[in-house]
Amino acid sequence: QSALTQPASVSGSPGQSITISCTGTSSDVGGYNYVSWYQQHPGKAPKLMIYDVSNRPSGVSNRFSGSKSGNTASLTISGLQAEDEADYYCSSYTTSSTLVFGTGTKVTVL
Amino acid sequence: QVQLQESGPGLVKPSETLSLTCTVSGGSISIYYWNWIRQPPGKGLEWIGYIYYSGSTKYNPSLKSRVTISVDTSKNQFSLKLSSVTAADTAVYYCARSFNWNYPTPQGVWGQGTTVTVSS
């Protein structure tokens, strides 16, 4: 299975909105609504931010939102803040009952 | 709330078997799916495999021939064995629990990670 494709980096100024894409195939992203997004700060374990395409766990800011169209899922961060600077990974369930992660995106707050 | 802690050797010789254990505290290992995920230095996350508390497993196809994940409900632990390791297996290894009890994804609880270096 191949890693899901994400842009290597995305940047924005404080207060702006940014969107990170996650492209897979009909065997993973396009086949299920089991896409999740994780935030990872340097030296820390990943943190779940979005699950099942667009659901937020309790405690996650509503500035984070998710969506999906076909084989591409997206994470949008609105009202960008300095603390949002981190690496972001998408993940999907697959038709083989396995899991696959995205290549990762470094978000920089200018 | 539930916490996960990885443990095991930080240094493994090439061709040997990497063995890690994840101890679950603050909750039972029964129900939920339990995952191993790794991250090579400076690289992205790679899913290794998961086990359901009942013992059923699923592995990353690229690692399947070398991976075994097992669970010990009496000790509230699950383990990872990766055989015939090379330098490419050097990584931070995370254990993680599924967010919902009835589906293997997403991962809602993570351990802090443990660094394993493969070197002679």
Explain the overall architecture.
The complex is a heterodimer of chains A (110) and B (120). Chain A has 110 residues and is an all-beta fold. Helix content of chain A is 0%, strand content 44%. In chain A, the strands form two sheets. In chain A, strands 1, 3, 4, 7, 8 and 9 form a six-stranded mixed beta sheet that branches. A three-stranded antiparallel beta sheet of chain A has the order 2-6-5, with no helix packed on it. In chain A, strand 7 (86-93) and strand 8 (99-101) form a beta hairpin. Chain A is globular. Chain B is 0% helix and 51% strand. The N and C termini of chain B lie far apart (39 Å). Chain B has no helices and eleven strands. The model of chain B has no long low-confidence stretch (mean pLDDT 96). In chain B, the strands form two sheets. In chain B, strands 2, 4, 5, 6, 9, 10 and 11 form a seven-stranded mixed beta sheet that branches.
Taken as a percent bin, the fraction of beta residues of chain B is over 45%
The count of helical stretches of chain B stands at 0
Which class of secondary structure composition applies to the elements of chain B? mainly beta
How would you spell out the order of helices and strands of chain B? EEEEEEEEEEE
Radius of gyration of chain A equals: 13 Å
Show the largest interface: A-B, 26 and 24 residues
Order of helices and strands of chain A: EEEEEEEEE
Summarize the entry for a quick read:
Helices cover 0% and strands 44% of the residues of chain A.
